[in-house]
Amino acid sequence: MDCFDLINAGLKFHESFRYSEAMPYFQDALKSHPNCPCAIYNVANTWHNMGENKKSKSLLHKFLATKDQILKEGCPESHEPVESFKLVAYFLLFHVTLAITKSFEQAEPYAIEHLNKRRRGLLSVWSKREVLKQIKQAQKEFGTSPE
Ligand SMILES: [Zn+2]
C-alpha cells in the first residue's frame, strides 16, 4: 500500500474511534515517508487520542520545527498542503499541552498561533467558532482565576 492508501485505511478505524487499530496504518505510512506531514499529523493525533500525550508532543514539536520545503518533498502522494497540517498541529498541541500540564497559560500560545495562522483556503478540522469555544472551555477548566 502507498502512503495515501495507508492513511485512508487508518482513518477508517479512526472514524469509529478504534485508535489502536488505526495506529499501525499511520505508523507504516510514517515509516515509509518519515517527512510526510499527513502521516506525522495522524500519528501525533492518534497518540493524543490514546492518551500518550508526551509522545504526541515530541512528534508535534519536531514537525513544527521542520521546514515546509522538506515536508513538501516528504511525500510524493497528494495530501492537503503542508500549511494545513501545521495549522491543525498547533491546535492539537494546545490540547496535548493542556493534557500534560493542566495549565491553560502554558497551552494558550499554541491556540493563539493556530488562530493567527488560519486563513481562507487552508483546511482546518474545526470552524473558528468551535476553536474559540474550546479555548473558552479550557480557560474555565484549567485557567488560574485572577485574584
Ligand atoms: Zn504521505
Produce a short descriptive summary.
The protein has about 150 residues and is mainly alpha-helical.
Quickly count the domains.
1
Bulk shape: globular
Instruction: Tell me the Rg in angstroms.
Output: 15 Å
Q: State the helix count.
A: 8
- Kindly report the CATH topology: Serine Threonine Protein Phosphatase 5, Tetratricopeptide repeat
End-to-end C-alpha gap: 57 Å
- Measured by DSSP, the beta-strand proportion falls in under 5%
CATH class: Mainly Alpha
CATH superfamily: Tetratricopeptide repeat domain
The number of E-state strands comes to 0
Q: What are the bound molecules?
A: zinc ion
Low-confidence stretches: none
Q: How are helices and strands ordered from N to C?
A: HHHHHHHH
The CATH architecture can be given as: Alpha Horseshoe
Main beta sheet = none
Helix residue percentage? over 70%
Mean pLDDT: 94
Question: What structural class do the secondary elements suggest?
Answer: mainly alpha
Name the features.
about 150 residues; mainly alpha; Serine Threonine Protein Phosphatase 5, Tetratricopeptide repeat; globular; binds zinc ion
Q: How does the SSE layout of this entry go?
A:
Layout (H helix, E strand, L loop, with lengths): L2 H13 L3 H14 L4 H13 L3 H13 L2 H5 L9 H20 L2 H14 L10 H15 L5
Helix pairs in contact: 1-2, 2-3, 3-4, 3-6, 4-6, 6-7, 7-8
The site of zinc ion has 9 residues, from α3.
